[in-house]
Design a protein that fits this description.
The protein contains 16 helices and 20 strands. By secondary structure, the protein is α+β, with helices and mostly antiparallel strands. A hairpin with a 3-residue loop joins strand 10 and strand 11.
Length: 480
Amino acid sequence: MNVIRFCLNGNWVEEHNIDPNWTVLRYLRTNKRQLAAKEGCAGGDCGACSILVGQQNHSGAFEYQAINGCIALLGSLHGKYVVTVEGLKEAEQMHPVQQAMVDKHGSQCGFCTPGIVSSLTALHFNRLHHQQGPASDHDIHIALSGNLCRCTGYRSIMDAAHAMFDYPAPADHAVINQGPVVQFDPNENKQGTEPYLEKEGQRLYVPQSEQDLQRLLLDYPDAKLWAGGTDLGLEITQQFKQFDCIISLHQVASLKAVTHSQSEIRLGAMVTYSESESVLAKSFPSFVQLIERIGSRQIRNLGTLGGNVANGSPIGDTPPVFFALNAKVVIASTTGEREIAIQDFYHGYKQTDLKPGEYLKALVLPKLKPQQSLHIHKISKRKDDDISAVLLASVIEHDGKTICDARIACGGMAATPMHAIQTQQALVGQPFTLATFERASEMISQDYSPIKDVRASKEYRLTVAANLVKKIGLECLGGL
C-alpha cells in the first residue's frame, strides 16, 4: 500500500487514510496538534501559516524553504523534511532565531510570530550552510516579504534578523540539522499509479515518472494536476471545493529538469520561481528582477513556471515575458510530445491548447542575441506580494541606427496575454530614436481594450502601458 511519508520535527510519519484535499496546515493543526502555525488569510498572503520544508536543491545541497502551509497540499510533502517552530527548540535551548526574536522584542501579540520565525530560520540555515555569512537588509526583506505583522512595525523584527547570526548555531543533533544526515528514498517500493491518500472515494496519486503520469491521465482525464497549488489551493481554502482525484506532480523528476544549449534554455514545467532565479540570472537578469516581485518568497518556493503558464490567467506575470522572448511550450501525452509557440497556447480566458490526457512538460526560452535587450515592467499597488494591474515585457533589437525587431506583450490588458501588434509594427524599421518610441506608444490603444476592475481602470491601464513603451525607449537609449 502506498503512503505519504515525511519527517515531521525529527520523526518519520506515514499517512494513507487522510482526505486528499487536506492542506499541510489543516493536517498539522488537526492531526498533529502543532498549533503554532495559524490560518490568517487562507490564501498565502499573510504568512502566519509558514512552515519549513527541507529537501535537496538542484546542486544536491540540502536547504530549507519557508512555504505557506495553508495552500500547500499534504500530498506534496512526500519524502521531505518538515519543521515547525515546535521542533526548533532543543531541550531548554531556543534556536538562534527564536532567541533573537525574544531579545530584540520582535513579538507582541504572537499570532504571526511563528511564521516569521520559520521564514527567518530558512534564511539563517541556508546562509550558514552555504557559508554566506550574515544577511543584508535586502536578503531579510526578501525572506520576510510574505510575512505580515500588525503589531511591531517590523523594526524589531529586522533587528532580530540581523542579531540571529550572533548566537551559537544549534547543536548537530538538533531537529533542524537532521535533513542533511537522514536519507530516505521516497520512491522505494512505490507504485505511481496506486493512490497515496484515499478516503471516502477521494484519491491522491503521486506518479514517480512521466510514464506513470500518462497512464493516470488516461484513466482520470478530469483529475486535477497539482503543481505549486498557489492558485488551485485557493479553491479548497476559500471556495471550499473538494476534488475527487488529484495528481501531485512533485515526484516526477523529469518535470524539474533544466538544460542549456548555446541558443536556448529548456525549463521543466515543475521548476519553481525560486529555483529559476539562479538558472535565469546570467541570460535574463531583468526576468529575475520580475520573479523577485512575484508573490512572496513562500509563494515562489511553491509556485512553478509551468503552473503560471498552464493556469491560463490573463494576469499571470510570466506569460508576457515568454511572449516577448518567443518562447515555446512542450506538451506531452502517451502519443508523444508536441512543441508550439506560446502565443498559440492560449485560446481565450482560462482556455489553453491542452487536450485531455496532455500536460505541460517544459518551456523553451531562446537566448537573446547580442543586439537584443529584454525589458520588463510590473505595475502594481505594492512592490511585494501583489497582482499586476499591467505587466509589459518587450524584446528590442537594433543596430544603433534602426530598430530591426520589436516584440511587446502585455498581461492584464485582455482576456489572455497578447502581443501589441500595432505598437510593434510602429517600431520595426524605424529610426532608433526616442521619438520613434513616443509615436509607437500612441498605438497601444489600438492593440488593447482592457476592462475596469478593482486593480485599475481602462484609462489607467492604457496610459501606463503607453508610458512604459516610452520608458523602454529611454532604457534602450541609455536615458535611464
